Amino acid sequence: xxxxxNLKHKGAIIGDALPNIPWEKKPDECRDIxxxxxxNPVLDRNPMPGIQGIYNSAVxxxxxxxxxxxxxxxxxxxxxxxxxxxxxxxxxxxxxxxIDFIYDESDVGDPSAYAYDPRLCKIDDEFFIxxxxxxxxPTIGVAxxxxxxxxxxxxxxxxxxxxNGVLFPEKINxxxxxxxxxxxxxxxxxxxxxxxQSPDMVYWxxxxxxxxxGGQWWQRTKIGAGPIPIETTEGWLLFYHGVMDTCNGFVYxxxxxxxxxxxxxxxxxxxxxxxxTPEKDYEISGHVPNVVFPCAALCDAxxxxxxxxxxxxxxxxxxxxxxxxxxxxxxxxHSQVF
Length: 338
Ligand code: BMA
Description:
Blueprint: E1 35-36, E2 51-62, E3 65-74, E4 79-86, E5 93-94, E6 101-102, E7 115-123, E8 126-134, E9 138-145, E10 151-153, E11 162-167, E12 176-182, E13 193-198, E14 205-211, E15 222-225, E16 230-232, E17 235-246, E18 249-259, E19 267-270, H1 281-284, E20 292-300, E21 305-312, E22 316-323, H2 324-333
Parallel strand pairs: 6-10
Antiparallel strand pairs: 1-22, 2-3, 3-4, 4-5, 7-8, 8-9, 9-10, 11-12, 12-13, 13-14, 15-17, 16-17, 17-18, 18-19, 20-21, 21-22
Bound molecules: beta-D-mannopyranose.
């Protein structure tokens, strides 16, 4: 890890300092807005006995270190959620047993079907996990924890079929906000990002369309929210995945959007081109080739540094970096809202 240096920024992140954010300076020769960690993948193929891949996973700072909820896939290819801990956000200890949820506050049924693509969101003093949960097809499971020891399962947010449930880190006008992406029971050849509100994390309504797939080819088939949105002085910064269909299957890339701070279903800017797309061997080759799938971002507000965790080729977990000034300038220079 290298020091950040003095990153100058105009637009700023609103949030806490995270001086120990995993970080590498942008390589001099890099012309892109997002650059990869030279030590990728941080969790490689076959990372632990019986597990063939850990990817599309969520990380947050916790008590001066980092915790994560990981999509951990055994050789049955059934995905479940496992807890992980790390001192530096790069080297991870993943628990062998999947997270054992307590069902005191819900009776959602079939807790063992499958669980994948988690997101982790701190709201006040609680951490909420949202993920794609099996309930006669995929929908958005929700759970909460304060200490990463006791995990309480809440009601599913939506009816099937839905994926990519991503919470906002604070209430807006008294309501929780969550993105989701209504889908089908299979590999879903469509998908737009919606926003829903809830007074209590149980009942969700006031559904709004935020962004549609389409436009440029890299995001023409479907899109889905990625990490928890980042509050900035200019709006909510959302990283998302955009998918194109090709004669050889789907290609998953990453884009960014800036949303209105009070009415986040209003899109201010949206990248007309991807900012990360499968290029490295670990992204173009794996259990599902040509996938970069961002699920978490860490931020150091004072320096504007952002570290993004993404799944690569449904096989490994990787890190990439950007800086708030660069991403905001890029968004404004290369935007098409539709
Ligand atoms: C999506 C989800 C992701 C996966 C992607 C590519 O539908 O299942 O978990 O990374 O497909 O296979």
